[in-house]
Every structure is written in C-alpha cells, then in structure tokens.
Amino acid sequence: MKKNSIYILFLALVFTACEKDDICLSPTTPKLVVRFYDNANQTALKSVERLSIWADGKDTLSIYKSVSLDSVTIPLNVNTTQTIYHLKTNTVDGNKANNLINTITINYTTTEEYISRSCGFKTIFNNVTISSNNGWIQSFTPTSLTKIDTQTSAHVKIYH
Amino acid sequence: MLKYIISFCLFITSLSNVAQEKEALDTVSNKTAYGLRLGIDISKPIMGVIDSNSSGLEFVADYRITKNWYIAAEFGTQEEITVEDYTNSTSKGSFYKIGVNYNAYDNWLDMNNEIFVGFRYATSAFEQTLNSFRSNTGSDYFSGNPVTTPITTKELTAHWTEFVLGIKVETFKNLFLGFSFSYKIMLSVDQPTNFKTLYVPGFNRVFETETGFGFNYTISYTIPFISK
Question: Per residue in A82-91, pLDDT tens?
C-alpha cells in the first residue's frame, strides 16, 4: 500500500512536469499598420489598385505584389533607425508606363523588450516620424507617433 | 539509464541472496550502521563531458536519525549555458538544499537499502549573463542582427522546495549507489532587468509555471558511528 502511494505520487509529478513553453505565441516586433482612405471622402476606406510595396534596395514584399488592398502591415528595419518604402500603384492597367510610385520615409529609435524564453526579444519603435514625397499619396496622418509597440490598430491613415 | 536501473535491480537481488545464505548459516543480529553518509553526484561530471554547455559539481550528505528517517543535504555549483532561438545566456552559481528522507523500504535482516521519499528546502546564489540576443521580428524581410555585448546581472537569489524520490543500494559494506528524481516548485526567484532567469543552479531549467525537475546518481560512503 505504501509503495503504491509512492508510485502514484511519482506519476503525478511526472505528468504535472509536462508543459509547453517552447512555442512562441505572444506578439513579437510590431509592424507598421497602414490603412488607405479616399481623399474625397476621408472616412471611407479606398483600396489601392495594383499595389506593390518594397523597401529601398530590397525585393518586393511577397504578400504585396500587385494586389488591391485597403490595409497593409509592413515590417520596419530593426537594425537601423530609418526605413524607406516605395509604394507602387497602377490605376490604369498592368502596363509599367502607367505605374505611380510614392516613397515614404520612416525615422525612429529602437529599444528591445524581453518577452519570453521562446519569443526572445521584440523591438519597440519610439519617436516615429513619417514623411512622404507626395506622389499618388495626397496626404496622411499622423506625421509622428511617440511609440509603436503593438499592431492591433492602424498607425497611419493614407488618403489618396 | 535503463541499464543502470536493471543493474540496481540485480544488486538488490544479489544482496537478498547473500542475506538468505547468512540466515541459513547462523543467526546474525539485524544491526545496521548509523552515521554520516557522504557522497558525490557522478552525473554532473559525466554531463560536463557530454554537454559542453553544462558543468557542475554536487556533494550529498545524510545523517540517519531513526530507523527510517534521515536528515539529508546537497550542495554544489553549476554553470549552464542556455541556448534559445533568440537568446544565449549563462547561469553560474552555487546551491544548498536541506531536508529529510523517509525510507519506505522494509529491509531483510541486516540489509540496508532504501526506497525513499524526501522533501527539501533549497536556495541558490547565482549570476546570469545574457551573452547575445537578436530581436524577434516575426518576418524574414528584416531580421534582427545579433547583439553580442554581454549583460551580466549579479547577486541573484532563488528559493524553492523539492519533492525527492529515489533509491540507495548498499553495494559493499557502507558504500552506496543511489539514484533520485526531484520535482521542484519555486518559492521566489530574482529576475534580471529586461530579461528572465531561465536557469538556476540546483533548480535547473525554470519552466513557465516556475517548476523544474532534476535527477542525480550518487556514490556515497557511510562513516559508521554506531550500529543498532
């Protein structure tokens, strides 16, 4: 009887020791969330026709290759303090001659914040300022953000 | 591991044979030694050879107070490198554990083997160094560069309790081989700023629920004070 109870105790200990903390389920480094609105009716979302997005000197983001969307999430470079993105639209046809390209520049400082064993560290972007070369983007708001630490809602509204 | 368990079983079997022979020859008194038993955990030096991220030393001691109760203690040092996807850290320090063992095994005649359950209070003083890390960007478009400036946090402490289950077999007169398994529950642990204590010497890996487990293989020798 005594031995049985020890055995049961041992099994109980083995099973309670099993837990999963090797899979990262927490939010990591936030991306910049951008939503596109109609410049004429600034409360209405308006999709960008044949939108392609790429960072300066890099390939086009694979999920944003000539797509029609009113909301995008784009990663920022955590190793520098500036990320430059080129946003292409084409409202006419697939012809290259009709492409319109707008460049937006995002400046920021970074800090690393520890999350957990499996997720490691995430980067938080502070003192974010955004500028545009005013191509097909007519205006945007806001031009500066104190902090980007989540991506649950839109950071920037772009009017076109 | 299974091999060791089998060899322990064989030891027990052989010992019981010896005991039976003795009984047949004459009537021996069922006296066993009471004294201070000192030993070393042989798994830690072996792990140090197998795993270059781990090095440690552990001494064990117990003192028999009644037929079935022992006061038990362990102390030692451990240095462990924890490698995760986004972090690489080192924990280094010493630990002390004190508690009791209860021998639940009914020995034949003058045999002195144990199947024991135990309880410990343990504490560790350690330091943790974040050797390198990189930001988890969640995408491969921009991935984080490794930051390799070590950040050391000294004077960290941890307190915990352990439930121990193990066996000890007397292989030669007063010389014991032992194996034990322990389940640990953290009471309190210091955390470095903007990082986490992932490993505590003596506690081993700290799981998300602040529990842990460990084992040891020991060779120990009883310095007999009296036999009764």
Answer: 999 999 998 8
Look at B115 and A28 and tell me if their CB atoms are within 8 Å.
no
Separation of alpha carbons B182 and A138, rounded Å: 66
Nearest residue of B to residue A4 by CA position?
B104
Residue A152: partners with Cβ closer than 8 Å, 6 or more residues away: none
Digit-coded pLDDT (tens) for B121-177: 999 999 999 999 999 998 889 988 999 999 999 999 999 999 999 999 999 988 999
pLDDT value, residue A13: 55
Prediction ipTM score:
0.76
Q: How far apart are CA A140 and CA A33, in angstroms?
A: 13
Task: Tabulate helix, strand, coil % of chain A (nearest 5).
Answer: 10, 45, 45
Q: What is the DSSP letter of A30?
A: P
Q: Which residues does B165 contact at the CB level (< 8 Å), separation at least 6?
A: A6, A9, A10, A13, B116, B117, B118, B180, B181, B182
CB–CB contact A116 B196 (8 Å): yes
| Residue B75 distance to chain A (closest CA, Å) | 23
- Tell the residue number behind the tokens 């936030």, with chain if given: A30
Q: Which residues on B lie below 8 Å from A120 (Cβ)?
A: 84-87, 133-136
Among B28, B180, B41, B172, which Cα is nearest to B110's? B28
Can you list the residues of chain A whose pLDDT is less than 50?
A: 17-19
Rounded mean pLDDT, B45-53 = 90
Overall residue count recorded for chain A in this entry: 160
Contact between B184 and B211 (Cβ < 8 Å): yes
3-state class of B73 per DSSP? strand
Instruction: Supply the Cα-derived Rg of chain A in whole angstroms.
Output: 23
Which among B38, B44, B9 has a CA at the least distance from the CA of B222?
B38
